[in-house]
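batch job 7 of whatever, protein = DUF177 domain-containing protein
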Amino acid sequence: MIIRLSELDHRKGEPLPFRVTLDADDIKSRHQEIRSVTPVQAVGEAAKLGDLYYVNGDMEADVNYVCARCLTTFTQHMHVPFSESFTNDESLVLDEESDIQLLDGEEIELDPLLSEDFLLEVPTFPLCSEDCKGLCPTCGVNRNEQPCSCKNERIDPRLAGLADFFQKNNE
């Protein structure tokens, strides 16, 4: 979707509502953790106040992931708020860290900006739940579904000699 700056200029501060659907295949192809995603629905408004153009709103979609601990597939509903600021005035963009983006033309192309905002909210290591127990490293059973009796005690190899020392002294 493209928002023309001339249209915002004529509205004299009155917000311009918009609704856009982002391409689900494009979103999926740009992040390796996403297995599938419903079309991302974005609803928001654009306005001009002073020398700045503002675009803000919310995006929603259902995303399928594979849990990083237990490898089960799960769906998470994502709600992503967004807010972007633009200007034609270079003096308002103070440095590279500024949240204000310099416009290069007479329009704002929303799709790439919204896709980037959505992808930044995708977790790097998705978890089906915060207390996911994961897979047993010995037998491979999903410890969320059933317990296992494997002994997975890890001893730091640098301290293994000390463990042997205490075991011999207790005998």
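notes: The chain has four helices and eight strands.
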